[in-house]
Design brief:
The protein is of the alpha+beta class. Helices cover 23% and strands 33% of the residues. The strands form three sheets. The protein has an eight-stranded antiparallel β-sheet with strand order 3-4-6-7-2-8-12-11. Strands 1-5 form a two-stranded antiparallel ribbon. Strands 9-10 form a two-stranded antiparallel sheet.
Length: 268
Amino acid sequence: MVRSMEKLQLHGFNNLTKSLSFNIYDICYAKSGQQQRRYIEYIDEMYNAKRLTQILTDVNAIIGAEILNIARQDYEPQGASVTMLISEGHVPDTITNVEAPGPAPESVVAHLNKSHITVHTYPESHPYGGISTFRADIDVSTCGRISPLKALNYLIHSFESDIVIMDYRVRGFTRDISGQKHYNDHEITSIQNYISDVMAERYQMIDVNVYQEKIFHTKMILKDFHLDNYLFETDKDALTDEERIAIQKQLKHEMAEIFYGRNYKLRR
């Protein structure tokens, strides 16, 4: 890992590729089949292709890129996708040392037309359990000095996320004018380094990192659980204590399975 690249003169463009991938989940309890259908319709409208395009446009502005092309699609019966081809602006090919919390300065080095942002949504519900889940998969892949990590907190906030699973990887190398290869241009030990203090206070986080391969993995799950936030078209006060306990157990069970990526037997 390169710890300082102050005034490093590059041979040509910065060829490093930085990729940030999200799986973002929103979990909900919708009691009846009708409520489940209305929840899917609500989520489908809330995160339709038009709204997703605006979110990705904001991401593009945050990381300081230029939009080259947008393709978007709403699907039947549900779901949407947006793909955005982006390019970095051009500055002289000199890398300056960057301090935390962000690895990329306002000015960036171009690597033409090699960057993209994509989002795909997957609303779904279980026909018997009353649990509905909305998943959004987001990929931000950039070349040069632009870093997708700058948009991290905005994306987590935009999707009102219960669970976030993230992967960040730096690939390739760039050469300086002496011909020496550099495999990274910013310091990073964890994705958590780039999560704001306000956001970090709200989530429990786990890391699995492979430092020598420049692969970083972080899982996040909300610390506080308030049943009101998970009920769709259901008034908590209209439920019995037994129903509230059972629904809360179902929701927490669903969240644990998603967070740890395995199925558990639900204890009654």
